[in-house]
Amino acid sequence: MRTVRQYEHDVNQKSCNAVIQRIFKSEGGFFLVADRTVFFPEGGGQPGDRGIVRPAGTCGADITIIDTLEKDGEVWHRLADEADGEYDSAGFETELAERGFVPGAEIELVLDWTHRFDCMQRHLGEHILSGAIYRLFGGVNRGFHMGEDCITIDIAFEDETITGEFVSDGALEKGAVSEAVGMPHRSGYTKMTWEMAEAAEAEANRVIQQDLPVTVSYFETQEDAASMPLRKAVKAETDVSVVTVGDIDSPADCCACCGTHPDSSGQVGLVKIYKIEPNRGMSRIYFECGMRAFTAYQKHFNILYELENELSAGDNDVLAKFEARIEKENSLHRELTALRKKNVERETAALLSNGCAGVHVYDDLTADDLRQTAKKISGKFTGFAVLVSIAGLAAVLVSDGSADCGFVVKEQAAPLGGKGGGNRSTASCVFPDKAALDEFIRRLG
C-alpha cells in the first residue's frame, strides 16, 4: 500500500493525524509506517524529514523521528532507539505497545519545521540556480548533493556550440544569453568560469526577488510530462511530478523532481556561490541558499570587517593593503634569511678556527641554523661537538666517529624527554623545557 503523502497536496502542512499500519525493526533501527504522513522521505538529493510522533490527542508522550525513507511506496519513519541514546533496544517494542503505538492506533505526526523549511529553501534554490545556468549558458545539471556544509551541483556542457533555452524534450537548442544580467552572446562553453558563475548567481537572485509562483504538476507517465518546458529529460516512467518556477510559458525553471519546495521563489531568500572546481569532466559548483547562505555571508563579512580594521582599510583598498603587507613580510623574510646565513657562516668560521670539540651554547641561533652549521663542520675536525640552541630548546651533535651521536641522544636525551635521533656522525634532539636542556648540557659538560 502506498503511503498517502500530505505534502503533495499542501507543502506547508506541518502535522497530520494518521493510523499506524505496522511497527517493525529493520536494518538501521525501528520504523513506523502509517496510512498517511506529512514527512518527506529521503530522495532526489533531499534528506528525509525529522520530527516527532505521539498518540493522537496527547501531549508529552512524544517519540522522536530521526529520519524518513521510502521502501516500495511506503514511507518509513525511523524512531529513535537505544542506539540514539533514548530507549532500551531490547524492550523498545514493549515500551511502544504500552504507550499505545500499535497497528490500528491513531497517531499525530509533527514535522521539525525548521529542518523541513531549510531543506525546501535549499532544494528550490538549487532548481533556480540550475535553471539560470541552463538558460544563460546551456549547462546541464548532472549531479546534485545537499550536504550538511554546502550544496553541490555538477554542470556539464554537452554541446559546446550553443548557449541554451527551455525546450519540451529536455534537449538543448540555440538561444541568446539573457540580456538581464548584461552578458554578451557567447558559444563554445566547456566549463563554468567565475565570471559565468557570478552572472548565474545574479540571475538566480533576480528570480528570487521577483517572488515567482512555484507549482507542482503531476503526470501518470513520462510521455504525459514531456509536454512541459523541461530543462532536462524525465527519468521516471510513471508518477512524474514536475516543479515549475514562474509562468509555464516562460519559466525560470522547469524540472521533474520529487522533493518539497516553497510555494514562491522569494522564500528562498538568497543564493550564494562559494567555489567552482573541475569534477570528472564537469564543473562542480559549491553554494548555499536561504538562512544558511545569509549566516555564511555574515561570517565572511565579519572576517573582512576585522581584516579591514587590522589594515586600517576600506573595502575599496583592503586587497591592495593586504598585498602590500604580504610583500613587506616577504621582504623581511628575505632579509632575515640573509642575516641567518651570515650568522651561520660566521659561527662556522669561528668553530673551525678556535676548535669545534666541546659544548657550544647559542642564544641567537635556531635549531635549523645549528643543523646548517653542523653540515659545514662535519668531517673537518677531530672529536665530538654539541651545538645548543637556547631559543629552540634543541641540541645538534657532530662527531668524527670517536663518539656515537645517535647513541648519546638515545641514552642521555631520551630519559629527559628529548625527541630526536641520528647516526654515529650526526644527531639532533629537541627538549620539552629549558630544565631538561640544561640537564643534558650538564651531563655532557
Count of separate structural domains: 3
Major sheet description: 6 strands, antiparallel, barrel
CATH-defined superfamily of the largest domain: Threonyl-trna Synthetase, Chain A, domain 2
Total of DSSP H or I helical runs spanning 4+ residues: 9
CATH structural fold name of the largest domain: Threonyl-tRNA Synthetase, Chain A, domain 2
The strand order across the widest sheet is 2-3-7-6-5-8
First-last Cα distance: 87 Å
Structural class: alpha+beta
CA-based shape: elongated
Q: Proportion of β residues?
A: 25-35%
Please, what is the average pLDDT?
Answer: 88
Description:
The protein is α+β, with helices and mostly antiparallel strands. It has three domains: 4-111, Elongation Factor Tu (Ef-tu), domain 3; 117-306, Threonyl-trna Synthetase, Chain A, domain 2 (Threonyl-tRNA Synthetase, Chain A, domain 2, 2-Layer Sandwich), CATH 3.30.980; 351-444, Diaminopimelate Epimerase, Chain A, domain 1, CATH 3.10.310. Helices cover 32% and strands 28% of the residues. The protein contains nine helices and 20 strands. The chain has helices at 92-98, 113-137, 194-209, 222-225, 290-311, 318-354, 367-377, 405-413, 434-444; strands spanning 4-5, 15-26, 29-34, 36-37, 51-55, 63-71, 74-79, 106-111, 140-146, 151-156, 214-221, 238-245, 253-256, 271-279, 282-289, 358-362, 384-389, 394-399, 419-422, 426-430. The strands form five sheets. A six-stranded antiparallel beta barrel has the order 2-3-7-6-5-8. A five-stranded mixed sheet has the order 16-17-18-20-19, sandwiched between helices. The radius of gyration is 34 Å and the shape is elongated.
